[in-house]
C-alpha cells in the first residue's frame, strides 16, 4: 500500500466532502441534542381537550354518520407508534363500536370491551399500560341504553335465579349499581342501573388502581363516562 502524503490528502478531502454532504442533507445530529428536544406526541393534550374531541366526534356521528375515512392512510406511520387520545371502557355489545360512535380513526382510541363495561383486573392492567406507556389523558366509561348485561343483573336481583357458567361473576360486578339505582331512581329502573353502572366503573378505575388514581390526582388523566343511546346515537355524559 502507498502511504504517500498525496493519498492522505485525498482521504482527508473525501472525508470533509462526505461530511459536508451529510450536513447538507440534515443527517448529522446537532451537537448536544437531547430527547427533550423532540416534539411532544400528538396525544400530549389536556384531558379536557380529549373529552371535547370525543364530544365533537359524537356530534358529527349523530348528525351525518361521521367522516368517510380511508383507513389505509398513515398505516405505515402507525406501525412505529400509537398515540391514542383516550382509553374507552365499553360494553361488548355489537351495536356499540366506540371508534364509530366518537368518529375516530385507527390509533385514536385505546379500547377495552366486555359485557356491561365492568372493570376487571385485565382491564385495569390495560389502562395502566395506556396511562404509563401511551400517555392517554382520558379514560371514558361507555355504557348504553338497553344493556343486556345490566338487565341480566337486574333480573337476577329481582328473581334470585341461578345463572350458568361465569355469568354470576358478571352479575356480581354490576350488582352494586343495581342496588344504588333502586334507592336513588325508582322510576326507570333499567336506565338508572345503566347510569349507575357507568359511575361505578368510573369510581373503580380511580380506586382500584394506584397508578390510575395517582395520575388522576396529579391532573394528568381525567375519568369521564356516558351512556350511548342506541336510538338517537347520542352519548349523554353522566
TrEMBL record:
Similarity section: Belongs to the beta-class carbonic anhydrase family.
Entry's cofactor comment: Binds 1 zinc ion per subunit.
SMART domains given in the database record: Pro_CA (SM00947)
One GO term (biological process): carbon utilization
Native source organism of the sequence: Methyloceanibacter stevinii
Any Pfam family matching the protein: Pro_CA
One term of GO molecular function: carbonate dehydratase activity
Listed SUPFAM superfamilies: beta-carbonic anhydrase, cab
Name of the protein in question: Carbonic anhydrase
Residue numbers binding Zn(2+): 91, 93, 144, 147
E.C. designation(s): 4.2.1.1
Gene3D superfamilies membership: Carbonic anhydrase (3.40.1050.10)
Role description: Reversible hydration of carbon dioxide.
Lineage: Bacteria, Pseudomonadati, Pseudomonadota, Alphaproteobacteria, Hyphomicrobiales
Entry cofactors: Zn(2+)
Reactions accelerated catalytically: hydrogencarbonate + H(+) = CO2 + H2O
Keywords: Lyase, Metal-binding, Zinc
Amino acid at each position: 500500500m502507498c502511504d504517500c502524503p498525496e493519498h492522505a490528502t485525498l482521504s482527508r478531502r473525501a472525508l470533509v466532502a462526505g461530511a459536508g454532504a451529510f450536513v447538507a442533507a440534515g443527517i448529522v445530529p446537532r451537537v448536544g441534542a437531547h430527547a427533550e428536544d423532540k416534539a411532544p406526541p400528538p396525544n400530549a393534550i389536556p384531558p379536557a381537550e380529549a373529552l371535547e374531541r370525543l364530544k365533537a366526534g359524537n356530534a358529527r356521528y349523530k348528525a351525518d354518520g361521521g367522516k368517510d375515512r380511508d383507513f389505509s392512510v398513515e398505516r405505515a406511520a402507525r406501525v412505529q407508534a400509537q398515540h391514542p387520545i383516550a382509553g374507552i371502557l365499553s360494553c361488548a355489545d355489537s351495536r356499540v363500536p366506540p371508534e364509530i360512535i366518537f368518529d375516530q380513526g385507527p390509533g385514536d382510541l385505546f379500547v377495552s370491551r366486555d359485557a356491561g363495561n365492568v372493570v376487571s383486573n385485565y382491564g385495569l392492567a390495560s389502562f395502566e399500560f395506556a396511562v404509563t406507556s401511551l400517555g392517554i389523558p382520558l379514560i371514558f366509561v361507555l355504557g348504553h341504553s338497553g344493556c343486556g348485561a345490566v338487565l341480566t343483573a337486574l333480573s337476577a336481583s329481582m328473581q334470585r335465579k341461578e345463572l350458568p357458567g361465569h355469568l354470576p361473576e358478571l352479575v356480581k360486578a354490576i350488582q352494586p349499581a343495581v342496588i344504588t339505582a333502586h334507592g336513588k331512581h325508582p322510576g326507570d329502573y333499567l336506565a338508572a342501573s345503566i347510569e349507575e353502572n357507568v359511575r361505578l366503573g368510573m369510581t373503580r378505575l380511580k380506586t382500584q388502581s394506584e397508578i390510575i388514581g395517582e395520575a388522576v390526582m396529579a391532573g394528568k388523566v381525567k375519568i369521564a363516562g356516558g351512556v350511548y343511546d342506541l336510538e338517537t346515537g347520542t352519548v349523554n355524559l353522566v
